[in-house]
Amino acid sequence: MSELRTPYFLVDENKLVENLRILRSVMDDTGCKILLAQKAFSMYYAYPLISSYLCGSTASGLYEARLGNEKFGGETHVFSPAYREDEFDEILKYADHIVFNSVNQVNKFANAARSAGKSVGLRVNPECSTQEGHAIYDPCAPGSRLGCTLDNFNEDILPQLDGLHFHTLCEQNSDDLEATAAVFEQKFGKYLYDMKWVNFGGGHHITRKDYDIDRLKKVIVHFKEKYGVEVYLEPGEAVVLNAGYLYTRVLEIVHNGMDIAVLDSSAACHMPDVIEMPYTPPLTGAGKPGEKKYDYRLGGPTCLAGDVIGDYSFDGELHEGDTLVFEDMALYTMVKTNTFNGMALPAIAYRKADGEVAVVKEFGYEEFFRRLS
């Protein structure tokens, strides 16, 4: 890959297939349906492969729905906290399932969706927080706008509904799903007997090494057998977990009470979750501060003082021109990149199963220019 200018993303097909085989085995063993959450990964170059394992895709609005329908195939599910009237008819062209966020949205749009032959659902909020330290990603946090609480639920809309949807997890194990599902059943389970499906949402880290898949299967089978419904899951991260990399280069070493390496990749522009989550991404060959001989803070080239990726240690000194490789960079990176400060977007590459690397997309000044006027 020496001919490709850093920074660039690289998605590894073999690692992608490892994840997809795990997800496929869950479907085969339980009869559930698993969908790709495009909000985490929308690299449609890989959709032919992913769609050969999964049942469809999920979308958060019109553009993702169109992409999923046209490039992924299978089932296309859409959820939005509030739909725009001027987009809804077009969404109906692409979606199979339409999930609403409130009783009011059901009353406003469900008739049109059902007339178009779409399956209609309601996202509910079981008000069961199982996350620690990531309130920004907790749909059950106090004051959340996501999902209809039991207090706001109106049984009058039941004839309009084919299913219920709950999404409360983020990078979590199946014990949290089990706990949430129990509360969901207590509050809303009685309605499932007359429905066709239930959707467990996303946030399931199914392909993580310590994930309890047997517990997940138990929860799925329980719902299928007790209520006679189709069970959907819509993971995003689990599909591409550990299957992507971001290659970057050291531009400069500066000193201010510590050694600081300025890279040609930016947390703010190329991996915003590092700042939003926040978290420190894994880096090939590096350790935590103090673990190895040489400590460095790694930062981006923008003017944002907080454009810091994290502190790491290395066996040897870093030098201008060194290439560094961040790991687990397929999820919530490419879908969130931006051109703040006029930063170039990283190129996108794909390593095929036989080792051949294809350059999928390169970006230049035009991507920055065309967005602004």
Explain what you see.
By secondary structure, the protein is α/β, with parallel strands linked by helices. It folds into 2 domains: 31-240, Alpha-Beta Barrel (TIM Barrel); 244-329 and 337-369, Lyase, Ornithine Decarboxylase, Chain A, domain 1 (Beta Barrel), CATH 2.40.37. 28% of the residues lie in helices and 22% in strands. The protein contains 11 helices and 16 strands. The protein has helices at residues 13-30, 47-51, 62-72, 85-94, 103-115, 174-188, 213-227, 237-240, 267-270, 273-276, 365-369; strands at residues 8-12, 33-37, 56-59, 75-79, 97-100, 119-123, 163-165, 197-199, 230-233, 244-255, 259-263, 294-299, 308-314, 323-327, 347-351, 357-361. Strands 1, 10, 11, 12, 13, 14, 15 and 16 form an 8-stranded mixed β-sheet that branches. β15 and β16 form a beta hairpin. α3 runs parallel beside α4 (85-94) and α6 (174-188) packs parallel to α7 (213-227). The longest helix is centred in the first third of the chain and has 18 residues, at 13-30. The mean pLDDT is 97.
Ordered list of secondary-structure elements with their pairings:
Layout: E1 8-12, H1 13-30, E2 33-37, H2 47-51, E3 56-59, H3 62-72, E4 75-79, H4 85-94, E5 97-100, H5 103-115, E6 119-123, E7 163-165, H6 174-188, E8 197-199, H7 213-227, E9 230-233, H8 237-240, E10 244-255, E11 259-263, H9 267-270, H10 273-276, E12 294-299, E13 308-314, E14 323-327, E15 347-351, E16 357-361, H11 365-369
Helix pairs in contact: 3-4, 6-7
Q: Would you count the extended β strands for me?
A: 16
Q: Output the CATH class name of the largest domain.
A: Alpha Beta
Mean pLDDT: 97
The fraction of residues assigned to DSSP E strands is: 15-25%
Query: What is the total domain count?
Result: 2
End-to-end span in angstroms?
34 Å
Shape estimate: globular
Gyration radius (Cα, Å) is: 22 Å
Helix content: 25-40%
Architecture per CATH nomenclature, i.e. the level-2 architecture of the largest domain: Alpha-Beta Barrel
Topology as a string of helices (H) and strands (E)? EHEHEHEHEHEEHEHEHEEHHEEEEEH
Class by SSE composition: alpha/beta
The unreliable regions are: none
Continuous helix count: 11
Biggest sheet, open or closed, and with what strands and sense? 8 strands, mixed
CATH superfamily of the largest domain: Alanine racemase
CATH topology of the largest domain: TIM Barrel
